[in-house]
Amino acid sequence: MKKWMGVIILGLHCAFVFSQTTIITNPVNDTVKSKWGKVKIVDGTKMTSSNDIIENITQSQEYTTLVTVIEDAGLTQTFKSKGPITVFAPTNKAFEKLPAGQLDTLIKPNHKYDLSYLITYHAIAGRVTAHDIEKKINTNNGEATFTTLAGTKLTAKIDENRNIVLIDENGGQSIISKFDIQQSNGILHIVTSVLVPKPKAI
């Protein structure tokens, strides 16, 4: 009886060791983690940190206008590039706030330069988190200035509700409503209004 008990215990011990080894060395779990990265739900759409900016925003119905204007401006590859870049992404509702007919004019082929200028005004070089923006505001007497990819200036402040507010060159304001959405090539912040730079002298 003792002999059989010893065999059973030995068998159970081997099975336990084998199962532990299988779990530890399972390459499938590691591949899934590496491939998909961190997932964040943005306006009902899953955005994955292993995707680039274009791959993520094209999955959402809230950014169809942004995707269209990026394509029309010939900037798709810019926002798919290695970067890193930080993008302040207007929603469809943000674009609807523009004066009537302005967007229709901008997407015409002869206004491609103006459209590109507008879109690159919504991006800055590097990975700039909301904490980075707030820190710069606090260390610069309540106001921070950033140089956009358009070569123009964008100002950031914190309002009475503790929102980070972006102020364009015309005094227009846009609140960062969602922030720090990690992308493989940068960071995405969602804004409530389109930022408009002053006309560029040619």
From TrEMBL:
<dbReference type="Pfam" id="PF02469">
    <property type="entry name" value="Fasciclin"/>
</dbReference>
<dbReference type="GO" id="GO:0005615">
    <property type="term" value="C:extracellular space"/>
</dbReference>
<dbReference type="InterPro" id="IPR050904">
    <property type="entry name" value="Adhesion/Biosynth-related"/>
</dbReference>
<dbReference type="InterPro" id="IPR036378">
    <property type="entry name" value="FAS1_dom_sf"/>
</dbReference>
<dbReference type="InterPro" id="IPR000782">
    <property type="entry name" value="FAS1_domain"/>
</dbReference>
<protein>
    <submittedName>
        <fullName>Surface protein with fasciclin (FAS1) repeats</fullName>
    </submittedName>
</protein>
